[in-house]
Amino acid sequence: MANMKHETVIGLEVHAQLLTESKMFCSCPNKFGAPPNTNICPVCTGQPGSLPVTNKKAVELAIKTALALNCRIEPSSVFARKHYFYPDLPKDYQISQYEQPLATGGWLEIEIDGQVKKIGITRVHLEEDAGKLVHVGAARIMGAEESLVDFNRTGTPLMEIVSEPDLRSPREAAAYTETLANLLRYLGVCDAKMEEGSLRCDANLSLRPAGETKFGTKTEVKNMNSFRAIEKALAAEEKRHAEVLAEGGQVVQETRFFDDVTETTSGMRGKEFAHDYRYFPEPDLVPLEPPAKWTEEIKNGIGELPRTVIARYMKEYELSREWADFLVYHELTGCLEGALKIYKTKPFNYARWLIVELPSFIAELNKEAAEKSNINKAKSELPHPWVIEDAAEKAAEDNYKKNIEVSGKSLPKLNLTPAKLAEIEKLIDGGTLSYKIAKTVLFAAIKTGKELAAIIAQQGLTQISDEGELLKVAREVVKNNPRQAEQYKGGKEAVMMFFVGQMMKATKGRANPELAAKMLKQALS
Amino acid sequence: MTAHELAARLAGRKLSSAELTRSFFERIKKLEERVKAFVTLDETGALAQAAEADRRLKSKEHVTPLTGIPIAVKDNMCTKGLRTTCSSKILTDYHPPYDATVVARLKAAGAVIIGKTNLDEFAMGSSTENSAFQITHNPWNLAAVPGGSSGGSAAAVAAGEAVIALGSDTGGSIRQPAAFCGVVGLKPTYGRVSRYGLVAFASSLDQIGPITRDVTDCALLLNLLAGHDPLDTTSVEAPVPDYRRVLAGGIKKLKVGLISDLMGNGIDREVKAAVKKAADLFARLGAEVIEVSLPTLEYAVATYYLIAPAEASSNLARYDGVKFGYRNKEAKDLISMYYSTRREGFGAEVKRRIMLGTYALSAGYYDAYYLKALKVRTLIKRDFDRAFDRCDALLSPAAPTVAFKTGEKTDDPLSMYLSDIATIPVNLAGLPALSLPCGFSRGLPIGLQIIGRAFDEETILRAAFTYEQNTEWHKAQANV
Q: Which residues of chain A are within 8 Å of residue B199 when distances are taken between CB atoms?
């Protein structure tokens, strides 16, 4: 590989759609999926005479992100107009920030093969999104018989996060984007779904001889719609650069389009799109001057950042890296901490509910929902709002991670209070419920919204710890399984597990497992 | 008659708004062929508004000084459902889906919008000859221009086709036509009046303001227009006084500076004489008149012709045939659609300014042109600041000459641009200024410009009112 001789240099520009109620410069709803051209107004369609008004919430979310990325919030930043003609851009300029961005000079730590690496953040700024074009007869506007434009997305608040050229491989680039996406989700500023376009990434890549400090000629790569695509696209582009250089050629500075199918990049723009954006300060908006007090309030609202929480969970709670990650990035830390405050037990016990049991319960509910013919109807009938959109698709998923990833923010919306979680652990520790029964009780409580005690009383689910009663059951089980009884007596002690299972079956899981084993031993002797 | 005189008659039920409105449409029918002040007339809408105004006047509910008063609106302010063309082919059939804030305020006050007045296309011009539809004529002399770009509004008021009117002023577009047509025109401080719904020419300079027959009407209309608008973040949340109440009180001890730089070469002799006489009257009325010099004013026109076209090139990008307005339907692809739509849709002056502005913002030229112009703009502001350290108001001619002949300057853009030499610096500094009649030359009115401190419209209105009360110029009527 040419990599032996060359060093790869990558810088990323990430665009994140902000989770605000309204658009960046008008009060239209910031919502995905409405019928075309319904969430529009004079401002976001660029009607003559309309003027932008900056969305305060968008500024707040961008400041929050910038602070989490260790950036300096500029006391005064300026919106600028970026000009280019395109039908999805109603004013034929985009309101963005140019010379004076909202925030500058931060960093993000990523982890590659257990090594932590600090990636510089050049700037964080705010801008507005463009609309969407639909072409008939061709993939792009050139050559299409007809092109239609939907302005619903126009004016969606976008935050651009520009990294320093600190990334040295496609893998690092993918890791950076994924870490950033997780952080944005954790902060609640963006749902960061690359496939849906709420998180978009452009990359600048160049190669230079190892040891060289000057940058080589870069190309910009666009259209990477997943973390995997980032890695693949940049690997392809890296290879292409290496080949050009190996043949003694020169890389042409240009924008290239990644094709997910062929896994190659190709030159994107014709000559007619060669741009001089003619930036100049947006005269319709006064400079953005966030009061220091406000910035301080936002800062205080951020709390511990993911990396800190994860490290603490691993060290203090003795959780695995995967589990700590999961809790943090699925906004489950609040539930865990809450439960621990109410009833102190091993954090692992609570984590297990949140990470292992509940996702499988969600999958179960999905399956139920899928079985109903009308998925939407099923959804509305389910008592809790955390069931996944397309239940039929999800029903087959038993891998919790996949399940959670697609469901997005479903788990945090789970109608499960820390108090319930604490109570169920208390009941297990006190011997009232077996783990298995506890699961049934908790799920029933979630599904019906009833109190745990009510479920237990109603279904008679308390654990059987009466030795006499258990001995009776044990004798019955031994009697019904003479062959296994012989094996046990012949020294095959592993068969005990089978008998305990039979005991549980006979008591519908209510037998105290330790006492059941003890009584079985008595019955078998 | 003025709005404040008519308001008294309307309130006394001696006259109904419907009668008044109908009489204006009759007059318009008689005169419009000669004046050509209006691009669009809305008799049906106006009569409906008049009927509503009469209901309010009768029940005495929500009656304002402008309830029932016929008003003309410059055709670069959006009126919901009523075509708004900017006198451009590219917006010939544009019907805005919303009202400009000033239009909404007029409607809420019960004013009767009779129509939309002609302007230089997109407000770019000083004679109202750059309209795609018609040339407006000066009611004082139909062979002369009414000034521009709010020439339609100024001519309509001067000809008695409207009681009052709205204009917009980017480099003098209210004051210069007011001067040419012998009426009162005020450009408020930048940020005093909402620009929401004013089709942008140069966003950092544009302001909407009143064009009226006298200073009292000017104050009344400004009362309605002024104030913060949440839809325009450049509008300022400064307290708004009742401008009508502050008119009286005189100008004793007022420190007035006559700008010597605007009383020299290039200014018509008779204009200078009239302005000098006005300054003398100010002194006789108790003001302390001194001469002041603002040396950077000589760079104002050059500065303006970089900043305004730069912003215009950006603001006018949206007229691309995609969403609204004219489109060349023959074009076979996107790029040729853009080219032909804009080539055919815009007039020569607009294209000239788009090219100037695009050039000034282009990579490699930005620092030398646009950025440098911004720096000079700051210097001009400082010059005004220094003048206002010594003065409460400044005086100058509103225009270097009286109205010139139609066609006289159309082939000489530079000479046309220079007719705004006295008004342009005020826009660059963001200050309030008004023009009012102060004499005649060859049968055409001369305009006196009074410039004030930022957000101090009060002082210039009081100075103008005091002057007006002691002169007869405003009583002269054009005989169309």
A: 48-49
Residue A312: partners with Cβ closer than 8 Å, 6 or more residues away? A304
First to last CA, chain A: 70
Contact B78 A47 (CB under 8 A): yes
Closest-CA residue of chain B to A286: B234
At A255, the amino acid letter reads: T
- Each domain of chain A, given as residue ranges in start order, spans 6-294, 304-459, 467-524
| B166: CATH | 3.90.1300.10
Report if residue B44 sits inside a domain.
yes
**Model confidence pLDDT, tens digit, residues A323-343:** 998 888 877 888 899 999 999
Chain A residues touching B98 at Cβ < 8 A? 42, 47, 50
Q: What is the pLDDT of residue A372?
A: 56
- The runs of H, that is alpha helices, within B346-456 are 348-361, 372-390, 413-418, 424-429
Span B103-155, pLDDT tens digits: 999 999 999 999 999 999 999 999 999 999 999 999 999 999 999 999 999 99
For residues A234-252, average pLDDT: 94
Closest approach of chain B CAs to the CA of A12, in angstroms? 24
Cβ pair B314:A83 closer than 8 A: yes
Which residue from B195, B233, B370 is facing A280, i.e. has the nearest CB? B370
**Rounded CA gap, B168 and B157, in Å?**
15
Distances, alpha carbon B208 to alpha carbons A12, A298, B113, B123, B164, in Å? 45, 39, 16, 12, 13
CA-based nearest residue to A100, from A295, A293, A289: A289
Q: What is the pLDDT of residue A218?
A: 94
Chain A residue at shortest CA distance from B336: A272
Question: Whole-number mean pLDDT of chain B?
Answer: 97
Q: Catalytic residue numbers of B? A: 74, 149, 173
Decide if A521 touches B, using CB distance below 8 A. no
Which chain A residues have a beta carbon less than 8 Å from that of B97? 42, 47
ipTM score for this prediction: 0.95
From A413, A414, A406, select the one nearest A388 (Cα to Cα).
A406
CA distance B305 to chain A (A): 16
Task: Say whether B314 and A45 touch across the interface (CB within 8 A).
Answer: no
Structure tokens at A383: 């008592």
pLDDT on residue A404 = 38
Write out the residue range of the structural domain in which residue B415 sits: 3-254+394-475
More confident residue, A370 or B303: B303
Q: How far is it, in rounded angstroms, from Cα B173 to Cα B186?
A: 10
Residues from chain A that touch B236, judged by Cβ atoms under 8 A, are none
Q: Residue A358: its pLDDT value, please?
A: 82
A467-524: CATH, from 1.10.10.410, 1.10.150.130, 3.40.50.300, 3.40.350.10: 1.10.10.410
Number of domains in chain B: 1
Total beta-carbon pairs less than 8 A apart between chain A and chain B:
104
Give the tens place of pLDDT for each residue, A33-91: 899 999 999 999 999 999 999 999 999 999 999 999 999 999 999 999 999 999 999 99
